[in-house]
Amino acid sequence: MLSPEWPDDPSTDPAGEAARRFALNLKAAIGDRAVREVSRAADLDEGTIRKILLGQSWPDLRTIWKLESSLDAQLYFR
Q1: pLDDT per residue as tens digits for the range 30-63
Q2: Is residue 20 part of a domain?
Q3: Could you give the percent of the chain with pLDDT greater than 90?
Q4: 59-71 residues labelled b (16+ CB within 10 A) or e (exposed)
């Protein structure tokens, strides 16, 4: 986690800020759905998604692609 108030407080680290914005976008795209439902649709481990949302892990390109495809949303912005 990059800040005690993750993901609400911006990060001064550019990579950390990209991860924070990704987590916020992911949370918005998930909406009212259960993380378990999203993990099945994306063919990802539920724990992977939870760690991204909590700032405990940063997604790799394959994970980003699977989440964007399954949620039909652009989650990563540069």
Answers
A1: 999 999 999 999 999 999 999 999 999 999 999 9
A2: yes
A3: 77
A4: beeebbebbbebb
CA dist list (Å): 58 to 13, 14, 32: 13, 13, 22
| Host domain of residue 38 | 14-71
Distances (CA, A) of 39 to 13, 30, 42, 47: 28, 10, 5, 9
**Domain assignment of residue 5, yes or no:** no
Query: Which positions ≥6 away from 64 have C-beta within 8 Å?
Result: 22, 75, 76
For 42, the 3-state DSSP assignment is helix
In a domain, 53, yes or no: yes
**Total domains present in the chain:** 1
pLDDT higher than threshold 70 for residue 1? no
